[in-house]
Amino acid sequence: MGVGIEVTGLNAWYGSTHTLHDIGLHIAANRATALIGPSGCGKSTFVRCLNRMHETNPIARVTGSVKMGDIDIYSGISPVAIRRRVGMVFQRPNPFPTMSIYDNVASGLRLNGYRNRRSLDEIVEHSLKQAALFDEVKDDLKKKSGASLSGGQQQRLCIARALAVDPEVLLMDEPASALDPISTSKIEDLIFQLKSQYTIVIVTHNMQQAARVAEETGFFLNGKLVEFAATTKIFTNPSDKRTEDYITGRFG
Amino acid sequence: MASTAPRPYQNEDRRRGLRIFQSHFVTGLAVLATVLVVAPLVAIFGYLLFKGASSLTWAFFTQIPKPVGEVGGGMGNAILGSGIILGIGSVIGVPIGIAAGIYLAEFGRGTKLANAVRFTADVLNGVPSIVVGMSVYALIVMREKHFSAWSGGVALGIMMIPTITRTTEEMLLLVPHPIREAALGLGLPNWRSVLSITLPTASAGIITGCMLAFARVAGETAPLIFTAFGNAFWSHRLDQPIAALPLQIYIYAISPYDDWHRLAWAGALVLIVLIVISVALVRYAAGRAVLKGAG
Amino acid sequence: MTRIRFQQNLDELKEKLLVMAGMAEQAIQRATEAYRTRDTAICELVMQSEPAINRFEREIDQMALDLLAMEQPMAVDLRFILSVIRINADLERVGDQAVNIAERVCDMQAFASTDLPVDIPKLASVAAGMVRKALQAFIDADAEKAELVLRMDDQVDQLNEQAFFALTNLIKEDPVHTAQALNAIIIARNLERVGDHATNIAEDVIFWVRGADVRHHLGQTT
After folding, report:
1. What is the pTM of this model?
2. How far apart are CA B195 and CA B200, in angstroms?
3. ipTM of predicted complex
4. Using DSSP, how many helices (H) and how many strands (E) does chain C show?
């Protein structure tokens, strides 16, 4: 089951550049929340603060609190532990090229010390089914490399890999932007099904996609959260003029 | 016909002829360059074949050198000795080189220590092989008061390290960033990500680097003069002087005996062939391993 | 500003709607004139202009549909196109009412002229005034002007009620004028409908400008 995320006073810096200003919002559990905004507005940076991937850059710094369930992920817990509870799917599919499909999906568990052979099989199958990929690859699990699949399949493989470690939150950074429309639809259908078990945060450039998959949407601009409301409200009658200008395409 | 703007492709036919000629000319230059590069290798190999093939008998591989004046004998001990020394060198050079490469690429990026390590490796690369031999002589042979196989191995290992280090670093840096991010995103600690994801992904290139280093030191003679020293008899003891193929070739080549000259030619031929075979074997094995890992 | 082509298309859509609005207003005006002067030629004119109004309605609907499909409008743009579609339908009905009135007037010609105890032109002018004000609110994108129109609807309803009672009384007292009176009742009802359509147009303007759905709320707006 997913958990809710409570963000308070989140600020982020890359070196001396202040990239996120005082972000505060509540992401509901077992829902999909979309983050939209123009390029460079900070939405990707924000999402990477949710699983502390932002810190993998040595000049990055974060202040503020991000509470997942009861735990503030910035209060003394190791980032590695956080990332086991918060999965991430990236813009370009990135399966491990030297591993088979099976090994890719199992990698998160295996490399964390999980050894039980039989339940690994079950978990891999279950994750691939959740990612709507199992039927397409079930005969080649150990024979085909992760990189030999099509773009849409690779992305679903990455989703399966992220789900295999049973996270509570799934972060998706423009997961379909490199894919064709049919693959995009499949991924969107997937998000719809996964919502009931995970909390999903999806960054997207594509407003129609946000409208299709998310119950709530946040609009970022220049590192600030301008508006956060039900998706239907944002797209039919937003409160802030800047939001309206962006979604009607009036941005210069 | 009235036309206002100048038509850009008016001299098409004339230009076309020129373009075709240019294309053929440059292709010809490229072929010539290839020939110039390959020719010396072919020439050397051919000449060795010519001079040495006649001395290649079964005895060559299985016997030790006969005393001066007697016909026959072989370089069996030198072949074995080279194998042993190269083995020791690899055992020393490969792990240290790869470890240093990993440090430079993954853990020490930008640190002063990393810069120092890299600088040291580059310097070491440029040190003449004889100086390496002399250093090992001073450090090990003089202390032990005798030449030994393993000091030869140490010398060769030291020479392998810079090449392996730099290649490993570069191959690791070539691993695409998204792959690392995926590993970190799964909640893997950095060291695990490096060992289980980044390193295997770069393995093909790293193996090539090791192979390059191996091929380079396989033919080194100078560092072995003061360390392994050479041995006219079968030996497999690490603490005793041992024969080595390049060393043996050198000794025979500068000798005044025709017999030994013939053996030297054969030895050179065998040396090159062995290097080529071992390189090919490693490439084949590495290719299989990568393919297997990649499904 | 980006999406210049889209903005131009939206302006074009608005223009087209206003042209059609002009035709509908003119139809009501002519029908009222026909009633005053009992001129059958004007009745004919009204009925001949109807196909043009219908054609405009189809074109506007098609244009709105294309914009929805091709431009994925959001927020205010989406509300604008939706209200254009609704206003389009209301204006076409207004045109229909004008035709109905003209038909009643033609019918009335067949009978003896008589002074009816009802001020049809007054009713017509109030109803037409509502349409004019609603369209002005649309042109100006002014929700407050639209609210004023909502309040005028009571007046039209009242005038219609009065006409109904007066005319039914006339029928009871003077059965010979029944045909005329019935036609007049129908004309009054048609004009009351025109007022309703004007109210709808005003509600659509408020929806577009404020994003508030005020339909069926009897003039309450937020």
Report:
1. 0.80
2. 7
3. 0.90
4. 6, 0
